[in-house]
Specification:
By secondary structure, this protein is an all-alpha fold. The protein has one domain. The chain contains two helices and no strands.
């Protein structure tokens, strides 16, 4: 089991939801019944209704102040070859 998968499993268990399943297991029936898996966002807006509402209760007005940045990922900036670069490099590149 990879570290990321183990960590996601621990996070899901901490929320009291079922362990995550693979992307290949997401079908129409599962999306229609998304409310049976409140901890899993199976589509962009969680359900076909696209309301982007989470029924989970762990984050609320009392606990929101404890939220913080969990991770970041620095994207490699690649400009189109014909586009001139500002100061010879991509914006934000170091």
């Amino acid at each position: 089991m990879t570290g990321a998968r183990l960590l996601s499993g621990v996070a899901v268990l901490a929320c009291g939801a079922a362990p995550p399943r693979s992307a290949a297991e997401v079908d129409t029936t599962r999306i229609v019944e998304a409310d049976r898996e409140p901890g899993n966002w199976l589509t962009h807006g969680r359900t076909y209704g696209e309301q982007r509402f989470s029924p989970l209760e762990a984050i609320n007005a009392r606990t929101v102040g404890r939220l913080g940045l969990a991770w970041t990922y620095a994207l490699v900036c690649r400009e189109a070859p014909k586009r001139p670069r500002a100061r010879g490099r991509c914006a934000g590149a170091r």
